[in-house]
Design a protein that fits this description.
single chain, alpha/beta, TIM Barrel, eight-stranded parallel beta barrel, 44% helix, binds 2-phosphoglycolic acid
């Protein structure tokens, strides 16, 4: 069985004081997590202090974005090696908010994945359809295009070392999560796409999280599915009790 990976995407929330306090609270509450993986993805300025707090724990640290170039005159951008140097092991790539507000495309997502892997970071690659696309019956087409575009030029080995987050855009921040059936259907589709592209069995080795309005109440129905390997949690990751409850459910099913 693939162990569940529960990641908290803080987005543009928290500051030094509230962010470090949240992590301290969670470290205090989650002393019994052994089988599942937990990842904190704070905004850039909080990576280092949060990483320092996590140092002696099993919990991972992830960024929410990176730039694909190694270094240079790219004002405002952050490189993979910088993220590594402050303790990151993960990086979210291609979140729908980045696609929507910052013009990210399957091509830029692909470049970022290559850079992250080159530097030894584990990408958490986000894919998912909008409501209009779902209602037009285009979910499969959109997810297939995003997965194939994101993974251009990647070996089967590389693909098995990254994480995919299926995040239907209509479920993000709306309080309207996908049903377990809807999520499982797309997770299975993604595994099929990977099997076709890389060979039978590869899709089954890839960790695929679900994201979109995951909370302490619906986490059991989602994480209880063998095809759902974890959760990328936004709003509910900002409160220690709520995030801890989701992490515990992930542990229970790992
Ligand atoms: P949400 O966000 O849990 O607040 O819906 C999830 C995400 O965008 O990763």
């Amino acid at each position: 069985m693939r162990p569940k990976v529960v990641a908290g995407n803080w987005k543009m929330h928290m500051d030094l004081e509230s962010g470090t306090q949240l992590v301290r609270d969670l470290l205090g509450q989650l002393t019994d997590i052994k089988k599942s993986r937990v990842v904190f993805c704070p905004p850039f300025p909080l990576l280092y202090p949060v990483g320092e707090l996590l140092k002696d724990s099993e919990f991972g640290l992830g960024a929410q974005n990176l730039f694909w170039e190694e270094k240079g005159a790219f004002t405002g951008e952050v490189s993979a090696s910088m993220l590594k140097s402050v303790g990151c092991q993960y990086v979210i790539i291609g979140h729908s908010e980045r696609r929507k507000y910052f013009g990210e495309t399957d091509e830029t997502v692909n470049r970022k994945i290559h850079r992250a892997l080159t530097e030894g970071l584990t990408p958490i690659v986000c894919v998912g359809e909008t409501l209009v696309e779902r209602e037009a019956g285009k979910t499969h087409e959109v997810v297939q295009r995003q997965v194939e575009g994101a993974f251009q030029g990647l070996s089967a080995e590389a693909v098995q070392n990254l994480i995919i987050a299926y995040e239907p855009v209509w479920a993000i921040g709306t309080g309207k999560n996908a049903t377990p059936e809807q999520a499982v259907e797309v997770h299975q589709l993604i595994r099929q796409i990977l099997n076709q592209k890389y060979g039978e069995g590869i899709g089954e080795n890839v960790t695929i999280q679900y994201g979109g309005s995951v909370n302490e109440k619906n986490a059991e129905s989602l994480l209880g599915q063998p095809d759902i390997d974890g959760a990328l949690v936004g709003g509910a990751s900002l409160k220690a009790d709520r995030f801890a409850a989701i992490v515990r459910i992930g542990e229970q099913y790992s």
